Amino acid sequence: MGRAPCCDKANVKKGPWSPEEDAKLKSYIDQYGTGGNWIALPQKIGLKRCGKSCRLRWLNYLRPNIKHGGFSEEEDNIICSLYISIGSRWSIIAAQLPGRTDNDIKNYWNTRLKKKLLGRRKQQQQLHHQHQQSPDHQGSQAAATVEHDHHHHQDHQQSPTSSLSNSALERLQLHMKLQTLNQNPLLHNMLWPKLHPFQEKLLLQAMNDENSNNNIMQLPLLPQPIMMESPLSNIGKEIMINPTNIASHETMAMTATTSSNTTTTTTTTNGMDHSNCSPSMMNNNNINVSSYGGAFQLGGGGGDDFMMGNLDNGTTSSLVWWSNEFETNDVHYDRSGSFSSSSNDSSWDCALRSSDDAGLF
DNA sequence: AATACGTACAACCGCCCTCAG
DNA sequence: TCTGAGGGCGGTTGTACGTAT
Questions:
Q1: Is residue A143 one of the residues assigned to a domain?
Q2: Among A205, A228, A251, which residue terminates a domain?
Q3: Residue A122: inside a domain, yes or no?
Q4: DSSP secondary structure letters along A253-285
Q5: Amino acid whose CA is nearest the C1' of B10
């Protein structure tokens, strides 16, 4: 038996909110708050809406200081960097952009930013698709579709790249594209994390697979990226982060030292088992942080791990775990959680992503 | 002017997680 | 320890609006 619905679907209004409904909801919340119970709220104020719908309307539209549209170049960069690092964790990405909602960013990414950054690939696909649709290609296309299905069913036994989700592949492609942009001196103030050689290999293989997969997609290979050092390295302050107790099942402690003080922070890890945690992460006693302007990256002290993030006026930083640590195609690190730290002269929030995204991380 | 097509975005759906009882 | 309600979140859909034909 499925779970009970949160509201009586037959008696709730759906679709766009009217100004009257908005006013009712806003004035109530302004006056009394949400009361910690969204489900009961619409009944209290006489709205024929689902509680979840009220919550969404408030969070995405009525809440004070919400910005709509007009994304700046800087916001684009942040979204892009974070998307590459952590994927579609829109709520985490939104947390780094004051006034932006996860829904807004998600829509912006899906409808505009992605196209802006990966536009050329889409165009190629579209052109090729049109080509495939032409009458003299109908037969071969049908055969290709069957073959494609066949490949799909065999995904798990096929090449390493077949285990990559579309999202992961998209992120890798985006990453490589931006790596090449990084070579443009005009864009040196943008920070994109380095690809692990294995990630590069996966991506190139994926693209080659696509090319050879019955010509379903004819993609030009992107230029081979040059693994360049971040222009930010060796500039700015240095923070030493000492991950300890990382093998603990429940908590992870990190000690961060800036030039003027030391902060220890503990994270909850949702009970995740860290026994499979990357050895290099566990053994990393020192992670060097370089920062400059509005961005920074943390390079792994002994392994290939590093973090990246953005600084806000030098007082607040946000870190996103970026691990290049994987050796096998089906690697699965149960590593997830988030933590934060603050001190007199620095503070940050950090997200550790789980690595179950098609073996990419 | 009418229609088709594309784009942007608000809103919904349903799964997952947390936590109180 | 178990259960279920509520909240959070990512994916998807619906629709209004703009542009091309």
A1: no
A2: A228
A3: yes
A4: EEEEE-SS-EEEEEEE-TT---TTS-HHHHH--
A5: A16
C-alpha span between A14 and A8 (Å, rounded): 12
Q: What is the pTM of this model?
A: 0.51
Residues A205 and A73 grouped into a single domain:
yes
Geometric angle at alpha carbon A225, from A219 and A230, rounded to 5°: 140
Instruction: Please indicate, yes or no, if residue A169 is contained in any of the structural domains.
Output: yes
- What's the CATH code of the domain at A50? 1.10.10.60
Place of tokens 């402690």: A253
Distance A249 CA to B20 C1' (A): 24
pLDDT in tens, A146-201: 233 333 333 333 333 344 445 556 666 666 665 555 444 433 334 444 444 444 45
More confident residue, A21 or A207: A21
Near strand C (CB < 7 A), which residues?
A 3-4, 6, 15-16, 34, 36-40, 51-52, 55-56, 88-92, 102-103, 106-107, 110, 167
